[in-house]
Specification:
The structure is a single chain. This protein has 63 residues and is mostly helical. It has a domain of 36 residues. The chain has 2 helices and no strands. The longest helix is centred in the N-terminal third of the chain and has 18 residues. The chain is globular and about 35 Å long. The two termini are 22 Å apart.
């Protein structure tokens, strides 16, 4: 995909993280959700973005 077709969704991802986290905690599903993301991290599917690199380039962030 050409870079011009990817937009930086940092602020939307942060907002979605906050609402999703609250909903998952309220419904008791937070731990299962966290385990999926940790597995993806271990498999190299996702990575942590250092704070000094946020908004320096076009990227798509997961909440």
């Amino acid at each position: 995909m050409p870079k011009s077709n990817v937009s930086n969704n940092w602020s939307q991802a942060v907002k979605r993280l906050m609402t999703t986290t609250k909903r998952l905690k309220d419904t008791g599903h937070y731990q299962a959700y966290q385990e999926v993301f940790m597995e993806w991290y271990k498999e190299g599917v996702i990575e942590v973005v250092p704070s000094d690199e946020v908004n320096q380039q076009l990227a798509h962030y997961l909440p």
